């Protein structure tokens, strides 16, 4: 009997998404979807392989009389997204500027602008997920965008409270951050966690079970993995977004896997339904030190990378 890689086995139960802005990696691992964030775009934009693409965006903007670095940055994000959509059969995620994480109107305007850019280039909004930080404002932005047929990927998500709020808002997809949850617990307890004991794995399992038990259509996409052990514990999750390094590791691993998450096991979980409004969301987040710290930290990091990308493009724009 032919041995199959862990990656091929997972693909039987879970949709694989490439967590990268690198086109060659996306071609190599043949994911259905791909997701980007400011850090990944910044990393890719600094590589020689993408120098021509970045220069092309800058020069075209300059020739058309664009005088805003913000405009150039949006054009670059969409240019990367379009290049990815030409490779994957499914969707690409493009992130709203993290500095708008608490700005409802600013986020709505940015999301609509990004979608318009994709549509002007011939790509349907059904193939684009707008990424928003899972603040209360982000949840409300998602609620509004989904009514317009603009689908959202709720990122920087670390708790069931955030997940329930997104499901109630009708968000298309959430990205709970497995590895960053693990990071916090390791740092604050001094313990190491493996397999099913990993608090990030436990968080995604709880969210998945809650969604399936209560019939929510919002998709769960585990994200931010630190090792393949975490991924193996979440086989059966709707989607998993995985970095090229871990995809390669699983491609070379031929150990047998078992299904970990399913609607059947979810229906038997003892979870109780939660009612989440703005005040309960803010209070329960405040009660969860890990989720509060990691959400704030994530917004700061993504904002810093947006500023770095802005600076790089500004220098290129001035020199063009």
Explain this structure:
The chain has helices at residues 6-11, 23-29, 38-45, 51-63, 69-85, 104-120, 136-147, 160-169, 178-189, 199-213, 228-232, 244-251, 263-267, 278-287, 289-319; strands at residues 15-19, 33-35, 92-95, 128-133, 151-157, 173-176, 219-222, 239-242. The protein has 320 residues and is of the alpha/beta class. The chain has an 8-stranded parallel barrel, surrounded by 8 helices. Helix 9 packs across helix 10 (199-213).
How are the secondary structure elements laid out?
Layout: H1 6-11, E1 15-19, H2 23-29, E2 33-35, H3 38-45, H4 51-63, H5 69-85, E3 92-95, H6 104-120, E4 128-133, H7 136-147, E5 151-157, H8 160-169, E6 173-176, H9 178-189, H10 199-213, E7 219-222, H11 228-232, E8 239-242, H12 244-251, H13 263-267, H14 278-287, H15 289-319
Parallel strand pairs: 1-2, 1-8, 2-3, 3-4, 4-5, 5-6, 6-7, 7-8
Helix pairs in contact: 3-15, 4-5, 5-15, 6-7, 7-8, 8-10, 9-10
List keywords for this structure.
320 residues; alpha/beta; TIM Barrel; eight-stranded parallel barrel; 15 helices; 55% helix
Tally of alpha and pi helices? 15
Count the E strands. Answer: 8
Alpha-beta classification: alpha/beta
Gyration radius from CA atoms, angstroms: 19 Å
């Amino acid at each position: 009997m032919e041995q199959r890689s862990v990656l091929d086995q997972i693909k039987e139960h879970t949709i694989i998404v490439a967590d990268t802005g690198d086109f060659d990696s996306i071609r190599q691992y043949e994911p259905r979807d791909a997701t980007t964030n400011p850090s990944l775009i910044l990393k890719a934009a600094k590589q020689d392989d993408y120098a021509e693409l970045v220069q092309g965006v800058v020069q075209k903007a300059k020739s058309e009389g664009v005088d805003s670095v913000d405009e150039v940055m949006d054009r670059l994000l969409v240019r990367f997204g379009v290049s990815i959509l030409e490779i994957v059969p499914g969707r690409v995620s493009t992130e709203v500027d993290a500095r708008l994480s608490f700005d409802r109107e600013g986020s709505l305007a940015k999301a609509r602008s990004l979608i318009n850019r994709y549509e002007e280039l011939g790509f349907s909004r059904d193939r684009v997920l707008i990424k928003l930080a899972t603040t209360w404002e982000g949840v409300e932005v998602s609620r509004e965008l989904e009514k317009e047929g603009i689908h959202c990927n709720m990122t920087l998500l670390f708790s069931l409270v955030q997940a329930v709020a997104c499901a109630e808002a009708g968000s298309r997809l959430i990205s709970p951050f497995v590895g960053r949850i693990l990071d916090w617990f390791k740092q604050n307890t001094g313990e190491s966690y493996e397999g099913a004991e990993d608090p990030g794995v436990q968080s995604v399992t709880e969210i998945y079970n809650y969604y399936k038990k209560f019939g929510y259509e919002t998709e769960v996409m585990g994200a931010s993995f630190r090792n393949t052990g975490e991924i193996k514990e979440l086989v059966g999750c709707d989607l998993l977004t995985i970095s090229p390094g871990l995809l390669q590791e699983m491609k070379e691993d031929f150990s047998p896997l078992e299904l970990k998450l399913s609607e059947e096991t979810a229906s038997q979980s003892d979870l109780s339904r939660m009612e989440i409004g703005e005040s309960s969301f803010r209070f329960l987040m405040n009660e969860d030190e890990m989720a509060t710290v990691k959400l704030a930290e994530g917004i700061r990091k993504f904002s810093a990378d947006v500023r770095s990308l802005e600076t790089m493009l500004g220098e290129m724009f001035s020199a063009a």
